[in-house]
Structures are given as structure tokens and as C-alpha cells.
Amino acid sequence: MTTAPETISALQGALAAEHAAIFGYGVLGAHLAGVQRQNAARICDSHRARRDRLRSYVEAGGATPVAASPSYRLPSPVSSPRTAAQLAARLEDGVTAGYAGLAGVADASLRRYAALAMQEATVRAIRWRGSPSAAFPGLTSAALYPRAEK
User: Phi and psi of 113, rounded to 5°?
Assistant: First the structure.
């Protein structure tokens, strides 16, 4: 079965976000202990499961899944449990943004899958952050407001 190019592109975008999250959780986990470390490990396992499912969707659609990069540039250094939690929240925001394109594809089952993934990532970001950061996590404020035409 061949899937529409825009659906493959959306799947690849979500997959790339999952790759980045898995890498980031590997880094931040080293700065956590106890329950926080266990929680981070469970979340990383969840991202791995979503990554694997996305890979299977891409392959079933007749495309080659985007590979993970050997490393990723982190938005800030991680040196403490506080900075690890900040990174985790940002990673989850990135996952939410990564699934946004998939939430708009024609396939209803993929839209549901994306919506659930976005919901889970948003809840995790709020938990890591301790409060919501934005009305629409993953979107910059510039993306929320129309621009005047020139």
C-alpha cells in the first residue's frame, strides 16, 4: 500500500520528534534520581514505543523511516534535576509540535493517534514544568497571530 506523500511527511515529522525526545531523555536521565529517574525511564520507553509504531506506519506506507541523528543539539545545558526537568518539558513541547502535522492528515485513525500523542506529551510537559506554559504547546506565539500583509 502506498500512502499519500503529505501523510508520509507528517509521519516522518512525528518520528523525528520522537527520535529527538529519546535522545534528550537519555541525557537528562543521568541528572535525575529516585522516582524522577524512574518516571523519565518510563516516559522514554513510551517514546520508544511510539517511535516504533511510527516506523511501522511509514514502512507500511511504502517509505523508508527517517533515521535518528547520531546526536542532537540541546536547547540548554543539563547539570541538575531542575535543568533536566526543564529539558524534559521542552522535549515534550517538541513532540507535541511534531505530531501537529499528523493531526491534520486524511486518515482518521492517524489523526486520533496524533491527538492522543499530543495530549500525552502536553500533560507530561505540564508535569515537568509544574504549570502550563502556553495555550497551544509546541506553537510559538508568532504562529498564533495573523500577520499583516504588506
Answer: -60, -45
**What single-letter DSSP state applies at residue 130?**
S
Name residue 30's amino acid: A
**What's the whole-number mean pLDDT along residues 55-71?**
96
Number of neighbouring beta carbons within 10 Å of residue 5: 10
Which tens digit of pLDDT belongs to each residue from 34-43?
Answer: 999 999 999 9
Q: What is the pTM of this model?
A: 0.86
Q: Which residues of 46-66 are buried (b: 16+ CB within 10 A; e: fewer)?
A: bbeebbebbbebbeebebebb
DSSP code at position 137: T
Residue 116 contacts residue 103 (beta carbons within 8 Å) = no
- What is the separation of C-alpha 49 from the centre of its chain, rounded to a whole number of angstroms? 12
How buried is residue 139: exposed, middle or buried, by Cβ count under 10 Å (0-12/13-18/19+)?
Answer: middle
58: Cα separation from own chain's centroid: 17
